[in-house]
Structures
1.
Amino acid sequence: MPFENQPSQNHSFTLKVPDGDNRERHVCDNCEFVYYINPKIVVGSVVTWRETPDAEEQFLLCKRAIEPRKGYWTIPAGFMEQNETTEEGAAREAREEACAEIEIRALLAVYNIPRISQVQMMHVARLREKKFAAGEESLEVKLFKWDDIPWDEIAFPSVHWALNQYREIHDRQVFAPFGNPPGTEKLVR
Amino acid sequence: MPFENQPSQNHSFTLKVPDGDNRERHVCDNCEFVYYINPKIVVGSVVTWRETPDAEEQFLLCKRAIEPRKGYWTIPAGFMEQNETTEEGAAREAREEACAEIEIRALLAVYNIPRISQVQMMHVARLREKKFAAGEESLEVKLFKWDDIPWDEIAFPSVHWALNQYREIHDRQVFAPFGNPPGTEKLVR
Ligand SMILES: [Zn+2]
Ligand SMILES: [Zn+2]
């Protein structure tokens, strides 16, 4: 019985192993509905811009207007929604947080954070035009040259990871996506 | 209030836009708990084996013991669980469905099926030793040479995609993961 169709129904959940399953789930006593708790996907992008083909690359960052890490800088990223693709989700986040239209070029990295059951899929993208602004979840949106990135005011470890891994491959056409950087086990387990 | 900590609580959900959100969610009238419905991740692997380094590659397939597509052949794959990484999940599925220990080499493909809000992450993997058996969800587990793969009895389109894309890169060290093959829009939207 799909939950989507019965939003106002009363559910009373008990933790038990459903028939044919091999681990405990939240099962409703009234209607057998199973509330599966699944890992969540975050989709985001390292978004770049060049004034001219020879100009130095700049990076689009958003200053967070909301907790957690309000006031700190991040790349456009957020939870993937229903009925979209990973790339559509990453483009939507750039639109919502930075009022920016982006062109996604490749998958940069897949980060696993099993402690909070999160999979982050970070992409390599370009601004389609030099047009951006603070969306509802941002205080400010700005282009930074690499040396001007406010490294001490970055919101999350994975933003560091993505920016630095991007620098390793930014002139390569074909590369395998990165994973969590070595030595970050304590942050994710 | 994390749902995980109150499994037996009664929830009565109404569809409304929570504060600070921009789309309708299922919000509990009693406790403000929000039931987010998120895309789900499937993790799987194309698993190969060679009798000797020069021998022809063989592919590990499982005959499904459960619906959907009972009696049809698939690669080891299933829903990612909480508190594991994507690679751990793919290895767990090989263990559960094929009683096999695998070594994961790379991310082969990311398939998006937005119609059912599913993201499939398929890997390239090798059997660690020639040891496998039917797990609870399998009727039979077998190694097939490429030409012997039962192409007419494959369970899902994405199994076709993964096997064929694997053939394109199986001797390459570095490659970008594939996406949905061109022309499959009707299957996924
Ligand atoms: Zn119920
Ligand atoms: Zn409640």
2.
Amino acid sequence: MSELGERAAALDAADELAGSRKQFVIEDDVVYLDGNSLGALPAHVPGRVEDVVRRQWGELRIRSWEESGWWTAPERIGDRIAPLVGAAAGQIVVGDSTSVNVFKAVVAAARMAGEDRDEILVDATTFPTDGYIAESAARMTGRTLRPVTPADVPGVLSDRTAAVLLNHVDYRTGRLHDLPSLTAAVHAAGALAVWDLCHSAGALPVGLDEHGVDLAVGCTYKYLNGGPGSPAYLYVRHAHQDRFDSPLPGWNSHADPFGMRADFEPAPGALRGRVGTPDILSMLALEAALEVWDGVSIEAVRAKSLALTDFFLECVAAYVGEGRVESLTPPAHERRGSQVALRCPDAGDVMKRLIERGVVGDFRHPDVLRFGFTPLYVGFADVERAGRVLGEVLG
Amino acid sequence: MSELGERAAALDAADELAGSRKQFVIEDDVVYLDGNSLGALPAHVPGRVEDVVRRQWGELRIRSWEESGWWTAPERIGDRIAPLVGAAAGQIVVGDSTSVNVFKAVVAAARMAGEDRDEILVDATTFPTDGYIAESAARMTGRTLRPVTPADVPGVLSDRTAAVLLNHVDYRTGRLHDLPSLTAAVHAAGALAVWDLCHSAGALPVGLDEHGVDLAVGCTYKYLNGGPGSPAYLYVRHAHQDRFDSPLPGWNSHADPFGMRADFEPAPGALRGRVGTPDILSMLALEAALEVWDGVSIEAVRAKSLALTDFFLECVAAYVGEGRVESLTPPAHERRGSQVALRCPDAGDVMKRLIERGVVGDFRHPDVLRFGFTPLYVGFADVERAGRVLGEVLG
């Protein structure tokens, strides 16, 4: 065994999260480093989905809205996600896509900021949907959208700024932005901070309550393993809930949804972020998937995540010829999410060959190899193998 | 056997759709008349969902976006719904909730109508979410919302009207509105017609293309049996697609979604109605559920639906004491959907007792018993039993 192989074995032996892997369906001959795109299947989810379909839908039918807890699923599952992102209960509802939740959050933030603040800032390096949706939110609330890099945000904030939409971790490079200090800067300017947690929730502590974040959104199919296209979530800070004025006031956000009243009276609390009938099959698959977090601390996950990405960078340095790849991921821990992005010529072709050899990451146009490290099911031997195979593929 | 019981047996024997019932999971001792709230489970759906979860997600993981057809599911399933609502292919995408699709449709319609048309009309008798969402769409496009009853629409239309949002079948009374003539009246005023098909699609012919409907939305968990909270759909007429300007331009509606470009360029065609990552578990359960329509004509469904509701009204007249209930559902076939709504004191309590005796309808505040008739799995003996049990419960 190589020295790195021995190191990996020792790290795995000491890994307090190593036992989590058996809760997931992953073949032993596969190194799955694409959990930042689609989390692996928790082994108990198929049985739970079958129960939802066969018994709850097939036998109980409409009774399940009450008896199987369908109606209250959005807020119940929100409360299950809450501790993972540092939120007290009663501030998160699950439902709709991330894009739709970005729209709710940015529009609501702009409205709370008041009419005289006419600019919305958006992370210019963000996953594109956030930019497109923020542009629509700006257009429909009479604001101007201004794309800026996160580093430039403090210098651009002014008394014209209504809201700022930022990504916690950049989807491409894996850069972790400084949520506490950026949120504080936004607040100092009198504006509201909206954070997109797609690439951080479930991989590192977020601290929404602690850092005073106003609104946040995130998906659940990456590090939360909710399944393909599983519903996203919306966080509305307690202090803002009474003023949260949704652009999508569906009947599920009404104070008396079954009253079928012609006039709209918003529900109290986080329920105000709901819209239409919740998508039960996907939502309850997510609820089941979240059970893998029972007894797991997000701090332990973060510690292992950093150890995994450190070790991967070390393996890449050892196995891959000098100058063949360039890391886009910040070396400093405080600026790194749970992925490593390597720039490489022919990245699309290289990723195909990696996948053929059982190392699954993904390719991001035009030249990025992206490797995501999910601490609940990726081990150090996986990491050593990924680095070694990458070295072999790059010859 | 009573005379009505004999009639029911004869009607069932002659029913060309009687064979469809075996495709659904319904116990023999249950009369399920709530398919207009949640359609029954098609028997082959659990196995298909299991394959999606265990193999497509669990084994293929991200490869399924291409290999299992996940990415193209919204438009593929839209094309499967299209013939049921009289639409040619390429005009429907599936995704999001009905409420979210109402928002897209009404905002886009107002934008297409032009700035000088400053009023949006909405069916005052509609399911409330449509009114709430239309109010938001009006507010965010600088229009005034004006609620009117469908009968009053022709008299209220003017050169100020931008768009009109109407329900095809009223959720409460089961009244079927005259889609062809109302659409023609809206067009004569130079406005756009948006129809909500939640309570008509799958129960009767809609004729979207034939009648020149501009935009339409609908849910899939009622007569289309897609499962609890299954994704809704959006129809955008071919002629309008190039001008369809979505308020929710997520990355899935981009011409080059994986280009991850900062500038938004809308996709051609119906894809423009997509928003975020599609919710695969629910969406593919719906796709499987739609197979029950193979070889079924919506005209045959309509003929049976009217025969069922006629027969139910006849049974109610025979079994229920004079004056105990009052039908809110229009007697004329051309004004009747696929449900019967009976006003009755203590309707909530009456419905509980019906359900205890195996006759499942639902209660709508304050005094309505609602019975939905799904021709694919409700037979005439069911109807006779429902009428008889109602008579017994009302003593």
3.
Amino acid sequence: MERNDAHALDDIIAALPADILVTDPVSMEAYRWDRANDPAAGMPLVVVRPTTTEQVQQVVKIAAKHRTPIVPRGAGTGLSGGSTAVERGIVVSLDRMNKIEVDPVTRTVTAGPGALNAEVKAAAAEHGLWYPPDPSSFEICSIGGNVATNAGGLCCVKYGVTTDYVLGVTVVLADGRAVTLGGPRIKDVAGLSLTKLFVGSEGALGLFTEVQLRLIPAQKQPTTLVATFPTLDAATEAVLGIIRQMRPSMLEFMDQPTINAVEDATKMGLDRDAAAMLIAQSDEPSGAALDEIWRIEEICNATGATECFATDDPADGEAFVVARRMAIPAIERLGAVLLEDVGVPLPRLGDLVLGIAEIAENNDVTIATMAHAGDGNTHPLIVLERSDPAQHERAHIAYGEVMDLAISLGGTITGEHGVGRLKRPWLADYLGAEVLELNHRIKKALDPDGILNPGSILVPDKPGR
Amino acid sequence: MERNDAHALDDIIAALPADILVTDPVSMEAYRWDRANDPAAGMPLVVVRPTTTEQVQQVVKIAAKHRTPIVPRGAGTGLSGGSTAVERGIVVSLDRMNKIEVDPVTRTVTAGPGALNAEVKAAAAEHGLWYPPDPSSFEICSIGGNVATNAGGLCCVKYGVTTDYVLGVTVVLADGRAVTLGGPRIKDVAGLSLTKLFVGSEGALGLFTEVQLRLIPAQKQPTTLVATFPTLDAATEAVLGIIRQMRPSMLEFMDQPTINAVEDATKMGLDRDAAAMLIAQSDEPSGAALDEIWRIEEICNATGATECFATDDPADGEAFVVARRMAIPAIERLGAVLLEDVGVPLPRLGDLVLGIAEIAENNDVTIATMAHAGDGNTHPLIVLERSDPAQHERAHIAYGEVMDLAISLGGTITGEHGVGRLKRPWLADYLGAEVLELNHRIKKALDPDGILNPGSILVPDKPGR
């Protein structure tokens, strides 16, 4: 059967309630982009905003029949273009499926994909429980998107990433069937690990309509240390020393351009001359947090920190964490940005950070680097100067060079944002032809016609891409 | 191409060094079984004990050419028959590939699949680091087998299962190619989650020749509580109360038949009249462990514990943990056993434990139940009386009824041992036809000729099984 988008649109309008369909081009505009702002975004046929799994199934069945591509989206905060609309495709926005139900006895939460990460955290907190994964965008990103990208965050250095908390998913497959994988069982090894396979599949294998997540008891009030360093080396040395001995609940890094952008935005009195800053937290119980923070301070001093400030006042500590979370918006004030997400094995963190500074200099662009340092996961932000096409070209060259550098250091092109469409051109270089081919085999097995989010991670018909 | 085992054997003998081949029937006997002692075990063509990834590739290429089945094995401690030899198949024993290399800076360990879990723990400990997953058999089970079954253990209630520690694997695929998935990067979302898919695949998707595991800083000395209860209900109520509020580093359960079998073997003075016993540990730092243990004691007392004994003496505490680890061998003294591994969502633990006692009574068999109670994962051991065929039949009926009961309670047929061959007949009932079919699709995509461990988890040519 040939692709027939016009029939798909007719069938959708006939089968689904009008109030869940968006068809006028102006209203659809908001559903064409995620935060990657991919200029190649297409204009969809229709945006569907289902409220039930059955409606998602109906849409997918129609799409399957007419071979029309589907792009799922949550809150549209993706950073790699995984939710960029494709031309004359169907956008399925899961924002309305946002019910949250906490079961304090099994310590699990069942959530619709459209529920925000912050809403899941808040619902858990009502029962003295905690959902740890915390992307910087946690107040505005959806839990379905988090599961689809296997999102990370700040506390992952101690508490792991999204997949470590996913116990089950209900997923609509490429043929419109809905299946539930896993469930509220902490241990379950019956059959292949399909739940884990779907986590991080960026919409290419199915559409989540419900997720079940593990919760843990509420985090203890953290103690915080902020340390500034005269050189990048001194800061990354401190990170290695810390991780070798302990598990801080947060270990974040900001370089000089980042510190300055945050200081411009907050006027909180950060040291503009510091080459780098670390923010560490410990949430150990009793006096153990302070002990851990003191040991961290010792390490920072030993590697040459110019200043260390420790506090067990939650508000003081939170101010620094907020500053770190503001880093991306603060840098976005300087211009549009190309947001990187490269990660390396921890011993190469210094080489990565220094190499990025070199790439910035060589290409005459500003790159502000912040990092979930304890994970070796960095976010170099390449600033695009408005109305300077030559600079844009240099910035894009730098963007690719940063990924090439990460690969050369044994690192990954994406630690927590996903491949989406933006990083797809580098995926083959990173995975190698054989592992890429395995990805295609799995895709083909679960979505033989390639209708699910084509172009995100993989281009179904192009095994080399 | 037709299956041609004789040619496969000729090719293996021609291609591989004689000192890694076992072909005489007497020596091969030891490689036909795992601890499931499946009476249907076949006689292999040859047992290969490779020392390099390249040798594994050679064997698999020959097997692929002649369509001869391959059964991989580690230390042969599997409990579900995942390493049962198939008639005229090739057994690949990975026991010689047991190199271990710890990188304390990345806090990772690279291990051959044949390295024992205890050896990995010991190597990590030399650097002040810890590999948490701890199947009761940790002293004799292989790390490759742990990854292949996504093994659990006692500390998983706080520290998670094997998959939570697997960062990367080198795997030989069904066509003999070797690929490396993942690596020593804490966060990596580039491409589909293939590493996680291979964990727990029980040899049905590939043969691991190297694994990379995450380590964490050494565990703190635990504080221990032992509590006895007059009824099963009182014990399971205590479990729910504990898990709702905190994360003990161990929360184990033994019922009366288990207590008595352990007491027979150890004479350590356990209360033979108790209906159930809990062993809880806390490894929180500073005074927090004792605080946690006191809160656990309070809960146990509130649900009706007859006696509680708390100790922060490591040797005293370890004695109870050893007693728990001895439970399976202690029961095996009573006769051969059918070892169950069913798990339920925590609130159904009481129903499961009571239901198992009822199944034992109805079928006139002894079932001793121990459990990783905090996970809802139980191990009912059904005792087979020697030389009583009628009793054997009743025991096998009870074995099936326990799984049916677990499924009816929203539970799983296997929490940590794997499906293997023993539990395969129940997999369709548990997963349902649609999810089973997804398993087959993935199997077909990665092993189109079905040569990898056929009959473990799935029967390649029988989509309904």
4.
Amino acid sequence: MRATIIHAPGDIRVEDRPEPRLIHGSDAIVRVAASCVCGSDLWPYRADQGPEEPKPIGHEFIGTVTAVGDDVRELQVGDFVISPWANSCGQCPDCRNGVQVACQHRAAWGGRDESGHDVEGGQSEVVRVPNAEGTLFVVPELSPQRGGTRTADEELLKSLLTLTDVMGTGYHAAKVAGVGPGQSVVVVGDGAVGLSAVLSAKLLGAERIIAMSRHEDRAAIAREFGASDVVAERGKAGAEQVRELLGGVLADCVLECVGTKESMDQALRSTRAGGHLGYVGVPAGGPELPLGVLFSKNITVAGGAASTRNYIAELLPAVLSGDLNPGRVFDSVMPLENAPEAYRAMDERRATKVMLLP
Amino acid sequence: MRATIIHAPGDIRVEDRPEPRLIHGSDAIVRVAASCVCGSDLWPYRADQGPEEPKPIGHEFIGTVTAVGDDVRELQVGDFVISPWANSCGQCPDCRNGVQVACQHRAAWGGRDESGHDVEGGQSEVVRVPNAEGTLFVVPELSPQRGGTRTADEELLKSLLTLTDVMGTGYHAAKVAGVGPGQSVVVVGDGAVGLSAVLSAKLLGAERIIAMSRHEDRAAIAREFGASDVVAERGKAGAEQVRELLGGVLADCVLECVGTKESMDQALRSTRAGGHLGYVGVPAGGPELPLGVLFSKNITVAGGAASTRNYIAELLPAVLSGDLNPGRVFDSVMPLENAPEAYRAMDERRATKVMLLP
């Protein structure tokens, strides 16, 4: 089977790999219907140093179950599944507590499972999924043996694919920041996660949504997703613009969707006293949080890596009905074979997010 | 009138000062019934450098209104009042949002009001209270002209006095950490605020309350306040003790009530993935929060300076009925004239908290 491998920074190749087989009783094999490149995949791509050895890459994929291990009870061959970016057992105290990202038996896509066996990356034709029942979320409507009669077109694939990561991550930011009716929201970051956060804020009933964006094409999607205002200024000027738009106060909820020192600073500057900052940007060597500012302003900071599996049940019906179209964050679709070009396009900001079709 | 003045680190004196008079229409004059020394008063007392000039000190007091300005409508002469540590106007957007500590017109006890006039410290016989109606909370039961028939004995004075700061601050930690029925709570810090946090966690229905204490006298009060367990270990060993007590998981809610690098580290180590850390320890040049740890563990950090006025209405009835006795944190009562000894006793940890009676 074909799989995307990172050899070194900037060096992505699609290569032949042995087709994965069941190893553990709790495994499933999934034939990938669509995968994609995540903003965080660009980190090793842009890193100073490459992986010690060539490594499969990708952690966002959807597809069909083609085999299940002996211990698998609920999943069936033929199930169409969404595979959240965080593999999780579903049984340990952290999973039962709803924090699958802290799963004590978590396997790493493109890395190893708990027992040390290799696990494929998501940007592949076929993936072995450890902890299959704790991880995979079945979409019965797309699973014929469960009576499903639909097939997913490209637009639906895109939106389903966002539920593995970016849409669930943006939704996490909004949920932990307590976004709700009547509230003012600032979203820092206009990548796929930031745009998903805008859509999530709208879905949760926010009254005013300010997207901080400097890219007209992304700002246009933000507006389509529900942003009432777009602010291009940054730093103190950006925060003052927010204050002016909100009639003299800063935002009730700020969603940080980047992960840099600058974006967190922007988020803190934009949050009113007593406000909530939901952050999901993976901290990129960023600053530690300035406790003095948080203390005097009583800013609540919540978020982190999103257990996106939690949100699939909540978001899926609207995706299936077409009321919710988070797949709009994909502005490019390529065959899996073009993965190297997908990385280049995202790295050079020619694309916001690329879907790969095997 | 007599007032406590800090001249330099370690140099506290009780001196004659002019009796304060009304300056603004929104002022009230309060004759102090009781005041006390806060843990945070020990900072300038222990500092390397003293204030530029001798400065009144103290921010926790209760007493009786003896005069009100022309713009005061609700407060009356004769009202027995609780004066929260944070002076606040009650009208600005931050006050209306429930964050009085961020009040845009806040006056500083022992400092200046918005118009630059001196304000007495709370460890005085008489205090001018700017923003009187936004700040003072009336206790009708102790106000004869409102039909109040009670007088406060020393035990009641103690408990009422905690509502100005320490009890409200401990309660803030517990509330923002989402303490509720069935939850496990760790309290870091066994000073007056930490003990109040234990009492608050009990009041909010926590199932298990672990107090981290190494002082047997304070641990005894913690147990009396509702602590189910006391842990003396610190650092990794302390967190492992918590995990063992809780059957293999860390705490749902951790209340940080100290403000040092070590206490925050202890709090983070003790919080389970997806847990809540409520902090009220004033950051003492402490560390910034390590975002990487928060991110991977999805720890929510909330708290900061407590707007204790918010909690008085909720806590007062139980204090008046005698069901709630936060005043137990006072282990010493002295006349105001002995303020220098009160500071020494707290500095040398011979006392947890000292009430001063004018």
